[in-house]
Write the structure tokens for this entry.
Amino acid sequence: MMLRESSEAFGYEVDLRAVTDPAIDSGIPHGSLLVAFSNAVLSRGRAEPLRSELVEAVGEEGLVATAGVIANFSMMNRIADATGMPVGKRFLAETEDVRELLGLERFIHES
């Protein structure tokens, strides 16, 4: 939802399939690099070469903003998981198209 809203605000036509398929162009400037950096950070992989490349592409402020977004999403997911927060019916309805597009239905489980 947040990516959808921010992409509309900036006038980008985003292909969300890029989140799960790095071969697809997301439509976001430096999108492939941002996804690769996010994956490296979250998997505790080799982020250093990508960090340098990201600074070159978006500057130091862009790197800091990227790190903040990664940290925030990671925090939100951990809190939701740790508290067992259920996903509301309205949210499920609003995200049905995205979940289908990305094949995320496989992660939904019944309590």
Q: What stands out?
A: Residues 48-83 form the longest helix (36 residues).
